[in-house]
Structures are given as C-alpha cells and as structure tokens.
Amino acid sequence: MRVVPVFDDIDTGGFFRAAADGQLAVRRCASCETVLHMPVGYCRNCGSFEGHWSPVVPQGRIYSYTVVTHQVHPDFPVPYTVLLIELDDVPEVRLVGRLEGRQDVRIGQRVVADFIPIADDAAFPTWRLQEVDGGGTER
Ligand SMILES: [Zn+2]
Question: Ligand 1 centre and the CA of 96: distance in Å?
Fold first, then answer.
C-alpha cells in the first residue's frame, strides 16, 4: 500500500495541498496570525477557531536529527534521516522532515526542501543539505 497524503484533514490537509503546489506552509490563526504548530483547531493566543495555511520559504537549520535504520514501510527504505528543522521564516516552528540516506549531518546545518511528486496530484517535501561554496555564499 502506497503512502499518500489526505487533503481533507483540517490539521494536515493544507500542508499537503501546499506541498502538491511546491510550497511549504504553516497553519496560522486567521484573527491574530499566531503560528499554530503543531496544527491545532484553535488559537492558544486569542481563542479563535479560524485558521489558514500560509506559505513560508522552505529553508531552515537542523535543530536535531536521528538516522532511521529499521524499515517500517516499503515506501521509506532505510537508512534515512529524520530532521527537526527550525524554519527561517518562523523559527518558533520546528518541523519534522526527511533527508534521504545517512548523510554527514550536523546541528545548525542549513537545509532546503524539494517537493517530490508521489502521485499525480500529491508531493512530499524532502529535505536536502544546502551547499555552501568556498566563499561562504549559500546557493
Ligand atoms: Zn489568534
């Protein structure tokens, strides 16, 4: 059975609809714009039950990581690295992401997301290490 995202879930649907369009999105309160991550049904700041999904730049820094070596699903061959990413646009958000394989990873390293199609109308964000050239310029 292939893993595909669900688009009509109130807590995660917007994330995967944005990913299908090649964007990374976080849920925000419609009243006060507080970021609601992990996505929840109400705003802890103002109490509103209205939210929306807002695109953010799919870049950040590795806050933590672990390498997975025990395969739990055929769609996710091991080894792979699970990242906890501090997003540049919303550093208060620590997003869980996936990095292919077992790579030379360190805390604080920059990462960027690509959106890998997994079906006709669905994609998963997959992270990669952001290369830094000799002059320190990120590309
Ligand atoms: Zn609010």
Answer: 23
